[in-house]
């Protein structure tokens, strides 16, 4: 944003021509930094409640370092980088020495966000092999300031495990269900709780699971009402959807 635009908005507020809410709306869409290979959105937090997140796959370490530096310079409170390998972690750590690498979920996090709600999101997995995707959701939620209740390895092949944890799940305001194979757990949970259920298919399973496509189609065809579906292995997207549900 150039200086003249900013002064014009501030004068408008001072003179009563525009309201503070209108000014905030204008400011939220104006500021970005052109790095030649990326336009870094510095007002993402004004619009969504959290700064822009770095998706690391396909980016060089140099690009990741530059983007992280741009983001952290303007918003030195919290940062998330997703789908990160060790090189991406080192690239973020060049800017933020206190960065933490969560190997299972392939997340890099820096700083923290205070909890904005006492409502909890349950992150539930069918199996242990689904935990990496679940942790992407759980850690993202924590960074967004949302309390998390983890309930892992309670798939339909041993339904008593789910029933044994049902009270804990039912107390939560949103439930994220992460499952591969045939993806049946989302429908079962959707029929047992009153909270909205966000289903996340994973690429876990034998050949006919087609890398998560079978679970995705099962979840899309769920007979339980109130079940929404994210893309395959998209724990991050599920966390953001839960965050927005609670933020409203």
Please provide a written account of the structure.
With 248 residues, this protein is an alpha/beta fold. Helices cover 40% and strands 18% of the residues. It is built from eleven helices and eleven strands. It has helices at 3-14, 20-28, 44-48, 61-74, 86-93, 131-143, 159-164, 166-170, 185-190, 213-220, 235-247; strands at 32-34, 39-41, 54-55, 78-82, 100-102, 107-111, 121-125, 148-151, 174-179, 197-201, 227-229. The strands form three sheets. Strands 8-7-9-10-11 form a five-stranded parallel β-sheet. The protein has a four-stranded mixed β-sheet with strand order 3-4-6-5, sandwiched between helices. The protein has a two-stranded antiparallel ribbon with strand order 1-2. A hairpin with a 4-residue loop joins strand 1 and strand 2. Helix 1 (3-14) packs antiparallel against helix 2 (20-28) and helix 4 (61-74) packs across helix 5. The model has no long low-confidence stretch (mean pLDDT 88).
By oligomeric state, this entry counts as: single chain
Q: How many H/I helices?
A: 11
Question: Main sheet?
Answer: 5 strands, parallel
Name the helix and strand elements from N-terminus to C-terminus, one letter apiece.
HHEEHEHEHEEEHEHHEHEHEH
Which structural class should the secondary elements be placed in? alpha/beta
Number of strands: 11
Give the N-to-C terminal Cα separation. Answer: 29 Å
Strand content: 15-25%
Question: Helicity range of the residues?
Answer: 25-40%
Overall average residue pLDDT: 88
The shape, in one word, is: globular
The low-pLDDT segments are none
Alpha-carbon Rg, integer: 20 Å
The strand line-up of the biggest sheet is: 8-7-9-10-11
